[in-house]
Amino acid sequence: MVKIGYLGPRGTFTKLAVDTAFNGEDKHSFDTIPECIDAVEENRIDIGVVPLENAIEGTVQLTVDYLVHQVRLPIIAEIVVPIQQHLLVDSIFSGDLSNLEEIHSHSHAIAQCHQFIHKYMPDAAINFTSSTGKAAEVVSKSDKNIAAIGNKLAAEEYGLRIYQENIHDYPNNHTRFAVLAKNEDIVKIKHDKQAEKTSLLITLPSDYAGALHQVLSAFAWRKMNLSKIESRPMKTGLGNYFFIVDVNQPYDGVLFPSVQAELEALGCKVTVLGTYPVYQMNI
């Protein structure tokens, strides 16, 4: 049986994505994103699913940096899941929101609900956890007036009550999850793909004026549509960056090799992080 790892514990949005995308495979939770990625690299699991980007908060930088600097695993698929953040409390909590002493959740979830927290719970202490599932677990074991921000699955898993539904600030809240595996043939997602995408890692020569403009031009004149371009520090000194570029088409034997050749002639280094299908889930 295929072993699938995900950012846990139970009740996270990553677990929700895994349950929606895959059938009854052997599923294992990990406390952190690096632990999940390492498990794939070390062959302890076959597939790893980790958050990649949120529509409100942007890129999950830990995922990108770990894949670039530590463990280079290919992205085999992308799962897009709608995110619904709820305020979760213990079943015996009967006060109003002003009585809540603490709010627990992942930093991205807290940021996604900033306006709600500011308006209704401005005096509550904010406590960041490794995941929304962990936040729900903390609340379930506490006897204080505290709350978690998480999903319906977290409430069910830890016996919590949804005090307020859909407290995120913006309605069109989605998260992209990367499916990582050494063998793409074992990834069987039970939905039809909506699109295909190729992700590239591009490093620019440090002393080449106008290099970024020429990088973008290499895609533009070939009419290759970019859905994302983002810079991240190389961690080798101030001013040194790499770029993640998402192209809305699968890797082919004509356009992409010619782009790579053109960029390498400029002194750029180009690495394919993955060419993969995109699956949009409805939960």
TrEMBL record:
UniProt keywords, alphabetically: Amino-acid biosynthesis, Aromatic amino acid biosynthesis, Lyase, Phenylalanine biosynthesis
Pathway terms, separated by semicolons: Amino-acid biosynthesis; L-phenylalanine biosynthesis; phenylpyruvate from prephenate: step 1/1
Biological processes annotated in GO: L-phenylalanine biosynthetic process
Keyword Amino-acid biosynthesis belongs to the record: yes
Its EC number(s): 4.2.1.51
SUPFAM superfamilies: ACT-like, Periplasmic binding protein-like II
GO molecular-function term, one example from the UniProt record: prephenate dehydratase activity
Domain ACT: 200-277
Claim: Lyase is one of the keywords in the record: yes
Protein name: Prephenate dehydratase
Gene source species: Virgibacillus salinus
The organism's taxonomic lineage, starting at the top: Bacteria, Bacillati, Bacillota, Bacilli, Bacillales
